[in-house]
Amino acid sequence: MVKIVFSGGGTLGPVTPLLAVAQAYREKYPETEFVWVGTANGPEKELVEKNNIKFVTLTSGKWRRYFSLWNIFDIFRFAFGFLEAIVFIIREKPALLISAGGYVSVPLHWAGTMFGIPQWIHQQDFQVGLANQLMSKTAKLITVALKKNFSVFNIKKTVWLGNPVRSELFKGDKNRAKQKFGIKSNLPVVLAMGGGTGSLKVNQMLVESIQHLKGFCEIIHLSGKERPQELVDHAGKYFDHYHHYQFLNEEMSDAYAIADLVISRGGFGSISEIAALKKPAILIPKPGHQFDNVQFIADDHAAIFIDERVSDGLYLAKIIKELLNSDIERRQMANKLNALMPPTADQTMVDIVNKLLKRNI
């Protein structure tokens, strides 16, 4: 039996595209065994296990690109994680390692090199992360979501792939969504997501905005499990057009299906899903690499970029109203985003895995 090990976590960014790979390959080869190596405290465990994939954790460190005493401690954590990875590989005997970034992947992939295990890394973000830079030296294949990153890596083993998206997300149903989320009006629906761990700033902005949106739209708000819920729970008591959830799993396809507009952070996993489903988007990136992701998209007029440092809920409500009042602008934005970030075909993902496994079926 073939065993494939995926790795990554801490956020859902490096998780969702790899789940798309797992789903596509399982559909073709249901006997394949998958294992996921993730973080102990990240949000990925629940989502991975919902997809019937065994989840394990390894010790990992984080290298900060600035002076920090924690870098010294994390050298020892990395060394211990490397030893754990060796034991893990001896025990599990994987045929292939696949990662889309994340520090938990680095010791695993380096250990995999000692055993001659082929490795595939996928680069999503506009800015190449340090973890992928470290793993790229030993990877047999590197795929990139954006064409501009093709030349960043060794061109002899780099392929422009686009970003994998879970096929289940295309199976949503609007009528089912109305019942699931308790939506009784015929108003437009806004789906607001603050990332896998939740964003306190996005939560605050959204709660500030809802008082200005009553009678204008329905709101489905995913606040994240790792954030205080008092603010959003309080808002839910006073606004019947506001529907709050901490996290969605299989219901996500229905949430996307009913959404006329999506508000999201700037992670490429979420943006890729929005693009594949041709949804217009307001993107509120967290400072750092997500700013580069979103600026690249906004420069093409494929989404609206809101800077959380200089914006508030009133401004967010204004932008929401403007977009919901313009069907043409929303449609143009959605089409541009889809053209900029086309989804990867399931068969393409299956073919890549088979090539790495040297499997001719």
Question: Would you kindly provide a written description of the structure presented here, covering whatever features stand out?
Answer:
The protein is an alpha/beta fold. The protein folds into 2 domains: 3-164 and 345-357, Glycogen Phosphorylase B (Rossmann fold); 168-340, Glycogen Phosphorylase B (Rossmann fold), CATH 3.40.50.2000. 42% of the residues lie in helices and 15% in strands. It contains 14 helices and 13 strands. It has helices spanning 16-28, 44-50, 70-92, 105-114, 130-136, 174-181, 200-210, 230-236, 252-258, 268-276, 289-298, 313-324, 327-340, 346-357; strands at 3-7, 33-38, 54-57, 96-99, 119-123, 141-144, 158-160, 189-193, 218-222, 242-245, 261-264, 281-283, 304-305. The strands form 2 sheets. A 7-stranded parallel sheet has the order 3-2-1-4-5-6-7, sandwiched between helices. It has a 6-stranded parallel sheet with strand order 10-9-8-11-12-13, sandwiched between helices. Helix 1 links the parallel strand 1 and strand 2 (33-38). Helix 3 packs across helix 4, helix 7 packs across helix 12 (313-324) and helix 10 crosses helix 13 (327-340). The relative contact order is 0.13. The mean pLDDT is 89.
